[in-house]
Amino acid sequence: MTALAPTASAEVREAPPRHEPAAPRRRRWSPRALLLALPVPIAVLVLWSLGVQFSWNLPFGIRMAQLPTPSQVGIRLADLFFGGLVPGPYSGDIWRHIWASLVRAGSGFALAAALAVPFGILLGRSRSVTQLFEPLINIVRPIPVTAWAPLALIVIGIGDRSAIFLVFLAAFFPMLISTSAAAAQVPPRLLEAAAMLGMKPWKRMILVVAPASVPGIFSGLRVGLGLAWALLVVGEMTGVNIGLGAMIMEGRVVSQIDLIMSGMIIIGILGVPL
């Protein structure tokens, strides 16, 4: 009579609960946060007013006596939006200039994104494409947008096209580099699995590499959009008549520093969401 070996009963254990990483919280401006954010701007305004009043000389040769007071800039800002406070061609006409600048910045950014994203994916996944284009990219990328402005004026001419071209240059390379780096870091196992399913190389680029590169692509898009807006003034130095940069340049020509600073403040406020 043979004895049956006792069967080992499998112990069923509950898997420990998995804790998903908490999503990053968006900053909420509570009353306390607003109170903490007020002292520095107030201090800047007070020091600015005192510096103008007492003609302070700051480092880098900054002569505060040449600046308008905060109240003068505030009046100019109110006049730009509502009109009737300061005589001049920009009184109550700021929305037209804001719209023109937004259109130029958006056009240059959209064109840069349309070219940088697919080219960046190809650059990140193809060694031959990288070897072919990387030397040229490394030479052209460090050239500042301000150095391109005189060439754009001569080759393209005065007008919107030069401004959009310079905005395009400002946004293109950050998006290209970020997209290329994201595409190069796609896990090989994803591509191997796609190849086993019979996907052709171009389909793998579209259906595997591009979705896996989305975080890097969006990071580059955000940086590119910020640079496009920040360097908009350089683009609008090419002789356009309408736009925030054109308004700032006009303020320089007629020595209206309050107009220059008002344009700077508007550009800064509009750039906060970027």
Estimated share of beta-strand residues: under 5%
According to CATH, what is the class of the domain at 98-253? Mainly Alpha
Number of strands: 2
Strand order of the largest sheet: 1-2
Distance between the termini: 83 Å
Overall, the morphology is elongated
Order of SSEs = HHEEHHHHHHHHHHH
CATH homologous superfamily assignment of the domain at 98-253: MetI-like
Average pLDDT score:
85
Q: How many helical elements?
A: 13
What's the CATH architecture of the domain at 98-253? Orthogonal Bundle
CATH topology of the domain at 98-253: MetI-like fold
Protein described:
The protein has 274 residues and is mainly α. It has a domain at 98-253: Orthogonal Bundle (MetI-like fold), CATH 1.10.3720. Helices cover 67% and strands 1% of the residues. Strands 1-2 form a two-stranded antiparallel sheet. Strand 1 and strand 2 form a beta hairpin. The longest helix is centred in the middle third of the chain and has 32 residues, at 94-125. The chain is elongated, with a radius of gyration of 28 Å.
